[in-house]
Amino acid sequence: MENKSLKQIIDNRLEKLKKIRELGVEPYAYDFNQTHHSSQITEDLIDSKVNLAGRIMSLRKMGKASFANIQDQKGRIQFYIARDDVGEENYNLFKLIDIGDYVGIEGVVFKTKTDALTIKVSSLTILSKSIKPIPDVKEKDGEKYNLVSDKEFRYRKRYLDLIINPETKDNYIKRFKIINTIRSFLNNHGYLEVETPVLQPIYGGANAKPFTTHHNALDQDFYLRIATELYLKQLIVGGFEKVYELSKDFRNEGIDRSHNPEFTMLEFYQAYSDYNFMMDFVEEMFKKVVEDLGLKQISWDGNTINFEEKFSRKTMDELIKEHTGYKIDISNHSDVLKVCNELELEVSKKDSLATLIDEIMRRKVEPNLIQPTYVINHPVEISPLAKVNRNGDINFTERFELFIAGMEFANGFSELNDPIDQRKRFEDQSNKKDDGDEEAFPIDENFLEAIETGMPPTAGVGIGIDRLVMLLIDTRWIRDAIIFPTLKSLK
RNA sequence: GCCUCAGUAGCUCAAUGGUAGAGCAGUGGCCUCUUAAGCCAUUGGUUGUAGGUUCGAGUCCUUCCUGGGGUACCA
């Protein structure tokens, strides 16, 4: 509960609220005519009349005249208010203003003796009285004081983080711009944005533990989707040729620096194309996003990443050779096992070939893929929805994963459209599940029937949007990229 | 899930096991060019929670809660 100190502050503000009403003023206004934002106030506007609105961030009261700063979406601006300019009544209202209140000001732009662009107020309107105080951050010479250091505070009360920390706001503005850029890119290429069920009777399309829920009227359990893949492909079967869905997926797994239980995923599918086409397309999309942010290269966690060069494409055996020095036949289990042991990886000889390869990739290769790199042609066992290689090498698939700065950003493939093969792959997954693999997914008969009806050759891609945002705002923490991250409730 | 660190006023931080303190914010006063405004005065604490050790616990031990950092699963 609130303790005395906070209660005292709130009581004082409630008292002021009462006094404002006694002056015949409604402290929660209905509208305000904003003619300018703080960032638009320049020397060119000196002597011009302007109306601005925003939140009071600092106050310097000096008896019969005062300075204060307001913050709007674009930044901050100082205003000057003097009793002789606004009149006794309006100045008395101003005296009841606190840090955190929203106000509207009408006035004229001028420069103070210290050359600060300032609004000389002719009339002040209170727009919203703040009852609960915001942390008062002080700033001098770019140095900030009393900044809230508690990360938990910033995550639980993101609105305060946004008020206090301009760079937090900048990061989320970037996030939402990135998402808009991606939408425009896909729309401009003839894609249709679609919606598919969040509540799914059978989960699939990825290897992950799902959230489970229950529909009362149907008396049936549903899963929150872990991926949109199986529904989007049914739309391809239905005759849509280019579709995408940009939305939340849910995975009931651990929370850490780079994982949140709900996260934003983009999946898109294009009929009559293959993974080679999609690698070009994804590359173009990434370059467009980076360009729209006004960048040619980006720095992330101390690395400089260049988006001007063509993304390289390498198979797993090429990459393993490059990063470990071992030239191995990745279809030979005992060779791969031997290399795993020599690299001191924690594996057992019972592990499948695909697991062993994956282990080498994850430990020794992927963290070193700093510049944009497509890893291509994954083992069929870990790619149950991808077509096998057209060159006849049926143990490997036409699949790619895009790595940048050691993180995976995209996963795509030539979609498996052979219904007989697809059923067999599902049965293998289902057997793994029966053997206790919690993340293998169950057989989805609806999906198989759709494929049996006939799906055109198609390529599809999934892109983790939160990761992309992390890359572009240069953070290692997904909580800096997700505006309301999942937290445990306080008891 | 495991390991580890942390939690003191609205915010930032102090306090050898020995009376819980400061700055900012708040409140009252003075102040018509201030900008971490200034000057004077002043309010505000069950030290995350529940126990224990001790003459005495913010400090040592244990439980629980929440979070941070690792790590596992994973995107």
Features:
RNA-binding, 14 helices, alpha+beta, BirA Bifunctional Protein, domain 2, OB fold (Dihydrolipoamide Acetyltransferase, E2P), 491 residues, eight-stranded mixed beta sheet
Task: Report on this structure.
- This protein is an alpha+beta fold.
- It contains 14 helices and 20 strands.
- It has helices at 4-22, 83-86, 88-94, 151-156, 158-164, 166-188, 229-237, 275-292, 316-324, 333-342, 353-365, 419-434, 445-453, 465-472; strands at residues 49-62, 65-72, 75-82, 102-111, 117-128, 138-140, 143-145, 192-193, 199-200, 212-215, 220-224, 242-250, 262-271, 297-300, 303-306, 312-315, 373-376, 399-404, 407-414, 458-464.
- The strands form five sheets. Strands 8-12-13-20-19-18-17-16 form an eight-stranded mixed β-sheet, sandwiched between helices. It has a five-stranded mixed barrel with strand order 1-2-3-5-4. It has a three-stranded antiparallel β-sheet with strand order 9-11-10, with no helix packed on it.
- Strand 6 and strand 7 (143-145) form a beta hairpin.
- The chain starts with a helix and ends in a 19-residue tail after the last helix.
- The structure holds one RNA strand of 75 nucleotides.
